[in-house]
Amino acid sequence: MTKISLILLSIAPVVALASCAPPDIPSSASTHWSFKDGFYWTWYSPVQEGCISWMAMERWVSVQVLVDRRCNNGREKGFVDGKGLTYFSPEDHLTFRGYWPWTPNIYDKLIIFNKHGNVETVLPCPHVLSAKQVSAMQIVLNDALRGKNTDSEKRVLSRISARLVSLSNVQLSSSQEGCTDEPKSSEDRKTKTDPWTAN
């Protein structure tokens, strides 16, 4: 058997596995593989007022809702420049990006330490979202929900939309990545079902 045959035989199982995406991954998704994460998929949903960018594994999905920005040809690593939010399904909260300057230095100044040098609390987000900004994100989500979606995509988009609707009574918290609607105390956090994997 030649070296080329051996190489082809060793690659064939990997190619076969790559084509076996979970059922709720759209057929348009790009397949990727890394040593750390194994197989994952990326795709995007262009809408008139923005873009929904997706990255998923079988167990979770990460979503970026971008306002006033066109989709690029595939999901980019990290948060794409511009205004919008990120949602990571197992954590079930929204993090808002691009609306205010946000750096590790800004976040560090919001951390309060006790006399033993341990973190006592993190101050609330010093910024607020206007009704107009929330409405712009909701328009992008509503457009995306009217498109063709898998069941898992619909559940995730609906969950993000529901969290946006409830923002009017929520004081945003501070996180490393930006301001978030995550409850400030662990007592307020309830066990939730991941909308990506829920049946």
Number of DSSP strand runs: 10
What Rg do the Cα atoms give?
A: 20 Å
Average pLDDT rating? 83
Q: How are helices and strands ordered from N to C?
A: HEEEEEEHEEHHEE
Number of helical segments with 4 or more residues: 4
Strand content: 25-35%
Structural class: alpha+beta
N- to C-terminal distance:
47 Å
- Catalogue the unreliable spans: 5-18
Shape: globular
Strand order of the largest sheet: 1-2-3-4-5-6-10-9
Q: Could you describe the largest sheet, including whether it forms a barrel? A: 8 strands, antiparallel
Residue share in helices? Answer: 25-40%
Structure summarized in a few sentences:
With about 200 residues, this protein is of the alpha+beta class.
Give a description of the structure.
With 199 residues, the chain is of the alpha+beta class. It contains 4 helices and 10 strands, in the order αββββββαββααββ. An 8-stranded antiparallel sheet has the order 1-2-3-4-5-6-10-9, covered by helices on one side. Strands 7-8 form a two-stranded antiparallel sheet. Helix 3 runs antiparallel to helix 4. The longest helix has 16 residues. The protein is globular and about 65 Å long.
Defining key terms:
alpha+beta
Fold topology:
Elements: H1 3-18, E1 30-34, E2 38-47, E3 50-56, E4 61-67, E5 83-88, E6 94-97, H2 104-108, E7 111-113, E8 119-122, H3 131-145, H4 151-165, E9 173-174, E10 179-180
Antiparallel strand pairs: 1-2, 2-3, 3-4, 4-5, 5-6, 6-10, 7-8, 9-10
